[in-house]
Amino acid sequence: MKYLVLARVAMLNFTVNLAKKAGEYLRENFGKELNVEHKGRIDLVTQIDRNSQDMIVGDIERKYPLHSIIAEEGVNRASGHDYTWFVDPLDGTVNYVHGIPFFSVSLGIFKDMRPYIGVCYNPISGDLFSAQTGKGAFRNGKKIMVSKTSLLVDSLIVTGFPYSLARLDDSMMRFTRILREVQGIRRFGSAALDLCFVAAGSFDGFWEVGLHPWDLAAGVVVLLEAGGRASGLSGEGFDPHRGDILASNGRIHSDLMRLM
Ligand code: 2AM
Ligand code: CA
User: Fold this and answer.
1) Is the fold of 2-143 the same as that of 152-259?
2) 108 touches ligand 1 (CB under 6 Å)
3) Is the shortest distance between the CB of 210 and ligand 1 below 6 Å?
4) Pocket of ligand 1, candidates 190, 207, 220: which has the most ligand atoms within 8 Å of its Cβ, to mutate?
5) Structural domain boundaries in the chain
6) From CA 94, how far away is CA 260, in angstroms rounded?
7) φ, ψ for residue 251 (rounded to 5)?
8) Which of 5-9, 153-157, 181-185 has the lowest mean pLDDT?
9) Per-residue DSSP letters for 143-158?
10) C-alpha closest to that of 62 among 117, 18, 25
11) Smallest Cα–Cα separation from 219: which of 200, 237, 194, 242?
């Protein structure tokens, strides 16, 4: 038991250092001229995403050679191990490419497919969000908690627009329905950081559809440990592979669910 606790602390420290190392690389190259490629119509990738990922995945493989790793830029090594790493080497690539300082390195670890460790780091603001299950969530070492807002009319919500045109109409109807009832809606472009800001109590809720497990895993661990709730849009249990997420401070969750 004691060994497990120490092993988990070591894993958290390793993850934090890895996020800082990759984040530093992102920061050094932020604002430089980039060769931007298209993975899809509006889905961008740069050599910076790939180098950041190589750095992260290489270090994980050396330290934890048996763990499963799922990373955005084409690494899908499901080894069947208890531990799975969900790696987004640069969450918020569109912001990065446009010189907007809202992006992060997002590293989530699930154990037996359940939330275990989450670290998100924005190297420009210096915000480092971290959490391990049962031990609380932290922003630069200071404990964070979700907001206590219980009325939609007082709630500030964050979202992302869908990347699949097939889901646009539904999403816009949802957007209008929610906008009528809440204080406001923001759209910042990094799902990982959006979740961390719900965890820190800045936003009261977040929803988005069509995301990937690497966008969500780390932020969800941070959110849950800050006392928040994450589910599918209809309240079903959170599954990082499902991609549609409703997240909140818990108090407004059922009201938001009704509007989904
Ligand atoms: P990324 O920057 O790592 O690609 C913003 O709404 C969120 O959507 C970001 O976390 C962004 O992650 C993600 N995203 C960007 N392109 C996407 C796509 N084509 N499909 C799904 N999610 C995407
Ligand atoms: Ca990414």
Assistant:
1) no
2) no
3) yes
4) 190
5) 2-143, 152-259
6) 26
7) -70, -35
8) 5-9
9) EE-------GGG-EEE
10) 18
11) 194
Residue with tokens 């509007």: 259
Cβ proximity of 121 and 104 under 8 Å: yes
Tell me the torsion sign for CA atoms 132, 138, 142, 147.
negative
Q: Structurally, what CATH architecture does the domain formed by 152-259 represent?
A: 3-Layer(aba) Sandwich (3.40)
For 104-157, write each residue's pLDDT tens digit: 999 999 999 999 999 999 999 999 999 999 999 999 999 999 999 999 999 999
Q: Which CATH class is domain 2-143?
A: alpha beta
- pTM, two decimals, is 0.96
Is 72:212 a contact under the CB 8 Å cutoff? yes
Q: Return the closest-CA partner of residue 190 out of 176, 178, 208.
A: 208
